[in-house]
Amino acid sequence: MPQFAANLTTLFTELQMIDRFAAAAEAGFTGVEILFPYDIAAQDLYRASVKTGLPIVLINAPPPNWAGGPRGFAAVPGLEDRFRRDFERSLRVAQALRARHIHVMAGRAEGAQALETLVANLSWAADRAPHASLTIEPVNDTDMPGYFLTDYGMAIDIIDRIAAPNLGLQLDTYHAQVITGDMQACWRKVAPLVRHIQIAGHPGRNEPDVGTLDYPSLFAELDDWGYRGWVSAEYAPVRTTQSGLGWLHVAG
Ligand SMILES: O=C(O)[C@@H](O)C(=O)CO
Ligand SMILES: [Mg+2]
């Protein structure tokens, strides 16, 4: 079975962020991710990570928090300086947390110039941080209206064009289902580029076993394929996180 991480931005939200680490460990997760860890001292988060033995496998760039702020600038023409400044800060935080991946968010933009801006910014970031693993994630634009990166073909072209060993794809199977209509077929098409996976049920984006998607089949396929990355639970629990973890117990 894959190794499962808890997204602490969406799970165990009844607890303070620092306390979510222990709850995740107790629930059986072996890693965590935090989308925007910028409002809490990095040393406190890292201490919680060490204490519980759960590595922080992913954070998002740039710094704005979950409650507000644009979802990135990497594709926004004219904001290259801001992108670079924010990326430097994300990099410092990722290093302090020993975070494995940094998801670089494209932001809201459109058109050919946005694509060139995204490629240029990602190339710069991949060069600037050769020891960091960077990801890009297609997101459906119903949930995030106006978001630039909503297409897997485009994401593959970008990764191919930049051809940096530290840049790869983040496959969020919920978004993949909304965007392509078949998240498992999508996995088969993009598998060699995938370095991080996020999961949720469809259509409600709740627990993986709530809704239409067949996760036991996907997990078996990941194993057969030899996927060695993390599978992170990024969903909104129907009731409490704890009461909805049947899928994890079955998978584990
Ligand atoms: O799927 C999502 O929304 C997240 O993974 C993300 O990074 C955008 O906030
Ligand atoms: Mg996601």
Automatic annotation (TrEMBL):
Organism expressing this protein natively: Paracoccus haeundaensis
Protein name: TIM barrel protein
Keywords recorded for this protein, A-Z: Isomerase
GO molecular function, one term: hydroxypyruvate isomerase activity
Pfam short name (any one): AP_endonuc_2
Lineage, uppermost ranks: Bacteria, Pseudomonadati, Pseudomonadota, Alphaproteobacteria, Rhodobacterales
Active-site positions on this chain: 137, 234
GO terms for biological process, alphabetical: glyoxylate metabolic process
Family of this protein: Belongs to the hyi family.
Residue intervals of the Xylose isomerase-like TIM barrel domain: 21-248
